[in-house]
């Protein structure tokens, strides 16, 4: 099985006619994703050809869902229009909205996150690589040819570390890999994915990748201790980061001992999570667990 995304998922792309949307739609199609439409109000009624596959463009998410049965939207709309695009997807009650866009103002992210509460739409992102269930479907920008279908679940704040871990454990393979994004306000969290992997009968073990800043990893550690019976290994990016510095993502702010890689490592280990000091060591720990 997989979480959130499978071979039956029907995907639309908001912003498909832009340069990034077009490029990554081509890559998603090549990896076997069922792309059933794009959304651009200015180009409704047109279609876009991708190596012989003609994908229709609709004027809105609700129309696209009605005509195609789509249940996933991947959003490549630029930051200025991203809030409206996500709210449109939420109002149409699409099941999953994957927000790839980087640079969305935190106020806008907070607004569409609040708008989605209690509704039918799960948001992944923003500022994330999306998610992939290898061999089934790929919604976002994750390379599809670096791993295979298997029995590990992966949830990660970092896009590039998602790819590295997928490659390091490519011979074992993954049920689903989810890049949740590193912004201060995101939709789906480590905890959401941990629960879904815990409930997925084909996921045998879980890799969790975090980074300095905030307390998401500490909260995830508490959740693992109370709710997760499957083995979990972890990696926290930023062991060598100087204290008091903003490192990369807007969310990676360290204050005193709170939010440091060491503090997160200690919290995870106290919950029974084995934590590697490098991505390769983390992969080795997972190999020991699954016997590969």
UniProtKB/TrEMBL annotation:
Originating species: Geodermatophilus saharensis
Catalytic EC class: ligase
Pfam family name, one: CoA_binding
The protein's name: Succinate--CoA ligase [ADP-forming] subunit alpha
Cited SMART domains: CoA_binding
Residue span(s) of domain CoA-binding: 4-104
Domain of life assignment: Bacteria
Active site: 249 (tele-phosphohistidine intermediate)
Gene3D superfamilies given in the database record: NAD(P)-binding Rossmann-like Domain (3.40.50.720), Succinyl-CoA synthetase domains (3.40.50.261)
Binding annotation for substrate: 163
Gene symbol of the encoding locus: sucD
């Amino acid at each position: 099985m997989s979480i959130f995304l499978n071979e039956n998922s029907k995907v639309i792309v908001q912003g498909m006619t832009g340069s990034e949307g077009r490029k990554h739609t081509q890559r998603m199609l090549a990896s076997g994703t069922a792309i059933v439409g794009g959304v651009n109000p200015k180009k409704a009624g047109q279609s876009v050809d991708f190596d012989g596959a003609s994908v229709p463009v609709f004027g809105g998410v609700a129309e696209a869902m009605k005509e195609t049965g789509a249940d996933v939207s991947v959003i490549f709309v630029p930051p200025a229009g991203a809030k409206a695009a996500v709210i449109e997807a939420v109002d149409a009650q699409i099941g999953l909205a994957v927000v790839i866009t980087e640079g969305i103002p935190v106020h806008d992210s907070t607004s569409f996150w609040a708008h989605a509460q209690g509704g039918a739409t799960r948001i992944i992102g923003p500022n994330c690589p999306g998610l992939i269930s290898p061999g089934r479907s790929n919604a976002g920008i994750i390379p599809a040819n670096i791993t295979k279908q298997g029995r590990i679940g992966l949830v990660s704040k970092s896009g590039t570390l998602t790819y590295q871990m997928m490659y390091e454990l490519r011979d074992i393979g993954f049920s689903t890999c989810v890049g949740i994004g590193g912004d201060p306000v995101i939709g789906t969290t480590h905890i959401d994915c941990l629960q879904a992997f815990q409930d997925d009968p084909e996921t045998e073990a879980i890799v969790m990748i975090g980074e300095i800043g905030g307390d998401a990893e500490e909260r995830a550690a508490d959740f693992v201790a109370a709710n997760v019976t499957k083995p979990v290994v972890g990696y926290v990016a930023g062991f060598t980061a100087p204290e008091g510095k903003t490192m990369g993502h807007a969310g990676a702010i360290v204050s005193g001992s709170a939010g440091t890689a060491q503090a997160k490592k200690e919290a995870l280990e106290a919950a029974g999570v084995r934590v590697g000091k490098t991505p390769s060591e983390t992969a080795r720990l997972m190999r020991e667990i699954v016997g590969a």
